[in-house]
């Protein structure tokens, strides 16, 4: 099964670039910027990656990203992700970034987007991997902050395809951001939203009906509401499911009870993604292998989920046809 998974061409639509920050690179960049991290070494930092819920992880995620300052730092972060993911046959990625996590520390928006877009251009040449950016608002901040971030981003509008919503979920419903997402939609951006990772099915309804989401990031709690399941299935709404993330954040006690198989059986449109691979112990291929090992999935189901990643990507029809042709051989 591992050889089959290795050979599958993969797309991932749910990867936070700041969550791909491996401890070795983090220490290297911290040293370069003369910043000290509150851990003795890489092993001590990795030992801290024992999470019981989303917020435990987010606390370390924001601490880790705080060593990123220069355009080169963002380039190094992104090119390392592309190189690693390409080694697992990643061919297409839509990459989230959290500008407020950087601009709030005095790093210019142009520095962040400059480094990321330079890495995307190099990844295409070096790894035959195409990537696009999705700008995410932090939902623990207020809507006015998201509005200011959108204003700041609009001069760079050609450099990203969508707008998303991430960070702490419970207590921060999508409806809190209805105005800024209406503006983002009117500006022509695709909309994605983390919903149902830890939060209730109502947040998934809000992402659909109030934000107008084109995809739902996670969506696990939708399984608690059969009307919502029927709606998601009828709309062929893509769910960007993240098995190792759910396991490491204790959303599921064991991978063998991960809902990916149940979602497929209910007719949902499932894609497989890594979320924050440096923190959750695996890149996109590792996520496919984890579910292939622990769930009763057929080769056809694994292939379908890999194809779904390309079907749900925000790319034009020619690019999609080129990507889907990769499946002719597997
Ligand atoms: N899994 C996740 N959920 C919400 N916000 C995030 N930001 C980075 N990873 C996240
Ligand atoms: Zn995420």
Automatic annotation (TrEMBL):
Binding positions for substrate? 276
Cofactor(s) recorded in Swiss-Prot or TrEMBL: Zn(2+)
EC top class named in words: hydrolase
UniProt keyword annotations, A-Z: Hydrolase, Metal-binding, Nucleotide metabolism, Zinc
Can the keyword Transport be found in this entry's annotation? no
Q: Where does Zn(2+) bind?
A: 14, 16, 194, 275
Q: Which regions form coiled coils?
A: none
The taxonomic lineage of its organism, from the top, reads: Bacteria, Pseudomonadati, Pseudomonadota, Alphaproteobacteria, Hyphomicrobiales
Q: Where is this site: Important for catalytic activity?
A: 218
Its EC number is: 3.5.4.2
The protein's role, per its UniProt record: Catalyzes the hydrolytic deamination of adenine to hypoxanthine. Plays an important role in the purine salvage pathway and in nitrogen catabolism.
**Catalytic positions?**
197 (proton donor)
Q: Which GO terms describe its cellular component?
A: cytosol
Q: Which residues form the Adenosine deaminase domain?
A: 9-324
User: What HAMAP family is this protein classified in?
Assistant: Adenine_deaminase
What's the family? Answer: Belongs to the metallo-dependent hydrolases superfamily. Adenosine and AMP deaminases family. Adenine deaminase type 2 subfamily.
Q: Which SUPFAM superfamilies match?
A: Metallo-dependent hydrolases
**Cofactor remark:** Binds 1 zinc ion per subunit.
Reaction it catalyzes: adenine + H2O + H(+) = hypoxanthine + NH4(+)
Q: Which InterPro entries match?
A: A_deaminase_dom (IPR001365), ADE (IPR028892), Ado/ade_deaminase (IPR006330), Metal_Hydrolase (IPR032466)
GO function terms (MF aspect): adenine deaminase activity; zinc ion binding
Q: Which domain of life is it from?
A: Bacteria
Q: What are the recorded Gene Ontology BP terms?
A: adenine catabolic process; hypoxanthine salvage; nucleotide metabolic process
Protein name per UniProt = Adenine deaminase
- Name the Gene3D superfamilies for this protein: Metal-dependent hydrolases
Please tell me the species this chain comes from: Parvibaculum sedimenti
């Amino acid at each position: 099964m591992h050889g089959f998974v290795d050979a599958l061409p993969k797309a991932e639509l749910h990867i936070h670039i700041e969550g791909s920050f491996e401890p070795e690179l983090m220490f290297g960049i911290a040293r370069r910027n003369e910043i000290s991290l509150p851990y003795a070494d890489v092993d001590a930092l990795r030992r801290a990656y024992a999470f019981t819920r989303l917020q435990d992880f987010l606390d370390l995620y924001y601490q880790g990203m705080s060593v990123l300052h220069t355009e080169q730092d963002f380039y190094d972060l992104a090119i390392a992700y592309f190189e690693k993911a390409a080694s697992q046959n990643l061919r297409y990625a839509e990459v989230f970034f959290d500008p407020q996590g950087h601009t709030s520390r005095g790093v210019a928006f142009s520095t962040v987007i400059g480094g990321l877009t330079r890495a995307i251009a190099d990844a295409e040449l070096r790894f035959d991997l195409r990537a696009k950016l999705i700008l995410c608002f932090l939902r623990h901040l207020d809507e006015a902050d998201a509005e200011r971030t959108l204003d700041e981003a609009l001069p760079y509008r050609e450099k990203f395809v969508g707008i998303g919503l991430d960070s702490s979920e419970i207590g921060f419903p999508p409806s809190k951001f209805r105005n800024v997402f209406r503006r983002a939609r009117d500006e022509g951006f695709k909309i994605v939203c983390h919903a149902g990772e830890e939060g209730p099915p109502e947040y998934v309804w809000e992402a659909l009906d109030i934000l107008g989401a084109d995809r739902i990031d996670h969506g696990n709690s939708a399984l608690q509401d059969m009307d919502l399941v029927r709606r998601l299935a009828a709309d062929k709404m893509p769910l960007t499911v993240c098995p190792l993330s759910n396991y490491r954040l204790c959303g599921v006690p064991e991978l063998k009870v991960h809902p990916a198989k149940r979602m497929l059986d209910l007719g949902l449109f499932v894609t497989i993604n890594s979320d924050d691979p440096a923190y959750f112990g695996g890149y996109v291929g590792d996520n496919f292998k984890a579910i292939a090992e622990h769930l009763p999935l057929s080769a056809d189901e694994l292939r379908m989920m890999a194809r779904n990643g390309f079907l749900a990507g925000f790319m034009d029809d020619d690019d999609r046809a080129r990507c889907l042709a990769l499946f002719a051989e597997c």
